[in-house]
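Structure tokens please, single chain.
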Amino acid sequence: MDKFDSMQVFVRVIEKGSFSAVAKERGIGQPAVSKQIAALEDELGTRLLNRTSRSIALTEAGRDFYESALRILDDFENATSRIGRGQSAPKGLIRVTVPPTFARLHMVSKLPAFFAAYPDMAIEMAASESPTTIIEDGFDLAIHSGELPDSTLVARRLGQTMIVLVATPQYLSRRGAPKSPEDLRHFQSVVFVERGSVQPWIFGAGQDTKRVVPTGVFRTSDLEQMRMGVLEHIGIAQAPAWLFAAELREGTVVRLLTPLERTVPILAVRPASRRMSAKVRIFIEHLEKTFAPCFQFNPAPG
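Here you go.
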């Protein structure tokens, strides 16, 4: 048994989520992939995967081996990128999770320049609001807007975004503009709901922090729907500035209560237990360079 090859097959099975996908990728039959995984389990003397007719799942031993295998493969990739033929451009697949609205507005547009610079690289992008799925589902990287919630993850700051209170000029022409957080009870809101709970609006920082629970006729758990609710003049919303970046520049939405705005980071997040591979490092550096002009702007208050 070629242990290194079996390790690569095992990692790809986890990344692709099926034996048949890896078999197709390698141009071999599915039984050959199953045989390699079974031989690896025999060699290690433990089961790595629990298999059903529809899915596969890592056992506890399998997760331990998966993390170790990733480190070994990343070390090999980093070594070959430094010496010998490895001086050539990096290649391979990067699997990244991104909040879906952020991906549509700001991520996909960054990919053509990356592929032009690194034609042998590929990106698999999955929609996820939670960065913790990179560990659960074997992703290389997560893009996250806000503070990092999980201490088992490490992050690199790509930029920052303001948390802004916004409305359209058309809505404000009918209702006027709030002068303080307390005034907001007199205005309709476009309300963001997470896990069934209305998310409070937070103003300021430290001891001066104020929290307001918004009320409104439109509640949603989807950022894109919240964005469209504001653009349809339904009411006021609080959101990261990246959600309304184009509209803020164009003046089709305006900022309110600007002295009470706060800043949160845009992060590239990865597992602390996993050494960063050369291909992931290059992708992060590309995002850092291209995000800088997008999120360090400060649109003029309306």
